Amino acid sequence: MTINNQYNDFIELQSRYPRTVGNDYLLPLEIRRRLEYGNLSFFADDKALFIFEQREGFRKLHFRLISDDAKLPPCDGTLAAFLTYRKGRYPDKAADWLRSQGFIYKKTLERHTAAGIAGSLSNEGIENASADEVYSMFSEYFDAVEADMPPREMFEPGNSYCARSAEGEPLGILYDMGRTLIVAVSDKARGQGIGRRLYRAFALGKSGGNRNYVFHEWISPDNKASLAMFKALGFAPDATMSDCYIKENVYGQNS
Fold first, then answer.
1. Cβ contacts of residue 168 below 8 Å, gap of 6+?
2. Are residues 200 and 152 in the same domain?
3. Is residue 1 a part of any domain in this protein?
4. pLDDT at 2
5. Could you please report the per-residue DSSP string of 67-106?
6. What is the CATH number of the domain that holds 159?
7. Using CB atoms within 10 A as the burial measure, which of 5, 72, 142, 187 is most buried?
């Protein structure tokens, strides 16, 4: 597998492969940031471009296929690939190719949308959390693949929102990854409105107080607590789905 941390070289290579069958939607800013952290590698031939983004405990696979008979290159560990499509439209070729390479369907996320957020927006009682606090809480409450967590070194304190106990212990943390949010609330603080407080603080900063700002959030259909919270905030499903496919121990368990 080729490793290249030169941004211009990476962008030029990506431009040679059309966005037809695949799931690669890495934007230039995201590519630059991940190259800076050394978290991208790639493999390219006359049939496909494969980009491997190192996450915490797994690699996230981005790919663009030119030929249906493209083969996944050797890669140890767990791979996760995410497909986005409109509800009712099976993502056919991309999903079929993943299954042909041994990927197994893992999880569906449903996108919910709200124009403005119900209730008052406030950051009262919400603070930043340290990178160690963010990583510790998310590691405890999320499966890394399902949460699409970045590696430890990419957590930045300025992107976090934290509700604390009177003793200063984190009760809940919301982390803003740019296009994805991760939220975790400790078991002992559930049912106290912590998640809603965190999101309202985030929404205040994100929207700049603009009540018509449009928010989009991905939620698992079986996450009843999150569904209830976002419904109360004014969100409704907009029929867009994202599927996660997993391939465990890709090649070389004995290597």
1. none
2. yes
3. no
4. 54
5. STT--PPP--S-EEEEEEEETT---HHHHHHHHHTT-EEE
6. 3.40.630.30
7. 72
For the segment 35-81, what is each residue's pLDDT rounded down to a tens digit?
888 888 889 999 999 999 988 889 999 999 999 899 999 888 899 99
Secondary structure E strands in the chain: 21-22, 40-44, 48-54, 59-65, 79-86, 104-115, 126-127, 160-164, 170-176, 181-185, 214-219, 236-247
State the distance between the two ends of the chain, measured CA to CA, in whole angstroms.
Answer: 15
Statement to judge: residues 98 and 138 lie in one domain: no
Can you say whether residue 159 is alpha, beta or left, with left for phi > 0 and alpha for psi between -120 and 50 degrees?
A: alpha
Residue 62 structural domain: 7-113+242-247
* DSSP label of 25: -
pLDDT tens digits, 13-26: 899 999 889 999 88
The reply to whether 59 falls in a domain is yes
> Tokens in use for 210?
């603009």
pTM: 0.81
Same structural domain for residues 80 and 15?
A: yes
Q: How many domains does the chain have?
A: 2
H-state helical runs in 82-193: 92-100, 131-141, 144-147
Residue 33's Cα: distance from chain center in Å? 15
